[in-house]
Design goal:
The structure holds two protein chains of two kinds. By secondary structure, chain A is mainly beta. Chain A is 0% helix and 50% strand. Chain B is built from no helices and eleven strands. Classes of the chains: A mainly beta, B mainly beta. The interface between A and B is medium-sized, with 30 and 27 residues.
């Protein structure tokens, strides 16, 4: 148990729809990162939020957007869903600590786009 | 973009054997991380490496950060059945508001009791 929770656990959507995924960070952590993990692949970094501001972004189109709230929980929004968006979406929380940080991952939300 | 080449893709070993896996990159990273992921769960951090040449151990696990900052290896000694899972390397670059973490494709480890 990492203290990071995600909801929902599973989700089925159709192409063109929009989806919102949620993440509650571990107590005391002010940074949340989101990842997309396709079957058989490593997680791909989507973006990171630090104190409610985007703090870095991977190679994902603008239809992937996020929010971080004052309590440091976070949402990932994906618009105009495509079939290739089917994946496990992971969030990880951390507390920046100078030279590096330990990211604690939640169990993920499995999204299927039909 | 940055890519990590992780090898081998999979390993099937006998309990008690030692295991070695590695990652290479064409890019320099500030930090190297090694994670293990079990089915249905998120990755769990095993070892973090912050300095070029750094050698770090965590129980039966040992990892090293390459001198060039472009590679790393992970060794597991005396493997046990619960070592089964997917092992990922990951490289971090961060500076200001430009954090980025890149994962390898993983090494699937199977341990035969």
């Amino acid at each position: 148990e990492t203290g990071v929770t995600q909801s929902p656990t599973h989700l089925i959507k159709t192409r063109g729809q929009q989806v919102t995924l949620r993440c509650s960070s571990q107590s005391g952590h002010n940074t949340v990162s989101w990842y997309q993990q396709a079957l058989g692949q490593g997680p791909q970094f989507i973006f990171q939020y630090y104190r409610e501001e985007e703090n870095g972004r991977g190679n994902f189109p603008p239809r992937f957007s996020g929010l971080q709230f004052p309590n440091y929980s976070s949402e990932l929004n994906v618009n105009a869903l495509e079939l290739d968006d089917s994946a496990l979406y992971l969030c990880a929380s951390s507390r920046p600590s100078g030279a590096g940080e330990t990211q604690y991952f939640g169990p993920g939300t499995r999204l299927l786009v039909l | 973009g940055q890519q990590l080449n992780q090898s081998p893709q999979s390993m099937f070993i006998q309990e008690g054997e030692d295991v070695s896996m590695n990652c290479t990159s064409s890019s320099i990273f500030n930090t190297w991380l090694w994670y293990k992921q079990d089915p249905g769960e998120g990755p769990v951090l095993l070892i973090a490496l912050y300095k070029a040449g750094e050698l770090t151990s965590n129980g039966r696990l040992t990892a090293q950060f390459g001198i060039t900052r472009k590679d790393s290896f992970l060794n597991i000694s005396a493997s046990i059945p619960s070592d089964v899972g997917i092992y990922f390397c990951a490289g971090v670059n961060s500076g200001g508001s430009n954090y980025k973490l890149t994962f390898g494709k993983g090494t699937l480890l199977t341990v035969n009791p």
